[in-house]
Write a structure and sequence with these properties.
ATP Synthase, domain 1, 9 strands, mainly beta, 9-stranded mixed β-sheet, single chain, 95 residues
Length: 95
Amino acid sequence: MQLEIITPEAEIFVGEADAVQFPGFDGSFQVLNNHAPIIAALAKGDVKVDLTDMFDTDNANNKIAVDGTNKKVIRVAIKGGVIEMQNNKVIVLAE
């Protein structure tokens, strides 16, 4: 699925993901390929992304943390936001 993580300042990440875990207000939740359409509010925490391919550290910015043991997993710290999943595309509008 296509994933975009966007803040008011910049586009943090755009790429393909197999699974994305979010910090929700009632606990964490995850979306996978072909998930039903969803819109949800996000709490402060980490967005954990299981990438389809290895993360290209050449295109990294200081907002993305790569898992030390698995280069296909990245984390992005957010202060809150909104997620929309529709037609295998996830858009995260984050603070």
